[in-house]
Amino acid sequence: MQPAISTERYAKVIDVSKRVRWEIERDVIRGSRFDFTKSFLPSSLSLVNELAFLTPGQKGVLSQVQGRTYSNIFGLVERFIAAKVSDLGRAHAFGDQVVFEAMVRMTDEELKHQELFRRLETMMAASMPPGYEITADPNAVAHAVLGASTWAVLALTLDIELFTQAHYRASIEPDNNLSELWKDVFLFHWKEESQHAVLDELELLREDARLDKAARDAAVGDLINLVVAVDGILQAQAKADAMYFGRISGIAGDSGRMAQVEATVLKAYRWQYIVSGVMEPRFQKVLFSLLDDEQKARIEHALSPLMYAMPTQPEVPMPMAA
Fold first, then answer.
1. What does the alpha-carbon distance between residue 28 and residue 189 come to, in Å, rounded to a whole number?
2. Could you say which of 47, 190, 237, 273 has the lowest number of CB atoms within 10 Å?
3. In angstroms, rounded to a whole number, what is the distance separating the alpha carbons of residues 190 and 22?
4. What is the pTM (predicted TM-score) of this model?
5. How far is CA 232 from CA 14, 141, 176, 242, 313, in A?
6. Packing angle, helices 150-167 and 56-91, rounded to 10
7. Could you give the CA distance from residue 190 to residue 116 in angstroms, rounded to a whole number?
8. From the first residue on, what is the mean pLDDT of each consecutive set of 10 residues in the chain (322 residues)?
9. H, E, C per residue of 218-261
């Protein structure tokens, strides 16, 4: 039996989507360039202040390297999000047309976000020293993620789109020392992602209503495996980014400091892409309302080795809230 669908909530998403609609060049970039005299990611996300031996200038450069990866990883995850939302939209194609329109609009916006992040990478590559690399292939990641159950993919997607909002509202928006274009990018990104999270939640609840306990047990296993896969991506990228930073900052020959940089960058990435999301109150409320005690315990056990990855001295209230 199909669960009831709240057409009104989908209709509200459409209304907001129309009001906040933006275009990359006209509204976001507007002929601007990144200000490389300023940071990109705030220190509450980059954790650069935990590396006391770095100069202020080196901390700024590390925030820019991490910011470049932050942008690229969003482009990467939105590859599988757009594909999944497109599939979900087809399931509504001959049903409620309001719901179908909401899903089509979300697909279009996610494709636009991918284009935005490709544009940013081109701009950053032209201004930063050569040698940076993104270690994961977006299509390979998308194929791997989409092999998991719909429930797990939707849970991961909701997590991503909620921590996107939490990062912007709690950390990026209040920081007046960031590159102005960087802040603009994530302001406009936030405007549309806030509506996507509503659709993620509605679709997750709809999918959950289809499952019995055995199917949900399997889906929880898929979600855990996806988090493990995300962490594998972060480990490889943290290593590459630390090596790149070491070369361009002049500390590559100091093995002790390089080890600290790599460990801190990995901690920052785990904080950004895993821990800050699973701590987000709305995500916890939605996800754990669907699980029994045994399923909750499985997730908590799987996450426990990663939960160290929080700022040593938080500069924003935690948990961050979308």
1. 9
2. 190
3. 12
4. 0.95
5. 36, 11, 33, 16, 26
6. 140
7. 13
8. 72 96 96 96 97 97 98 96 95 93 97 97 97 96 96 97 96 96 96 95 96 98 98 98 97 97 98 96 96 97 97 90 88
9. HHHHHHHHHHHHHHHHHHHHHHHHHHHHHHHHCCCCCHHHHHHH
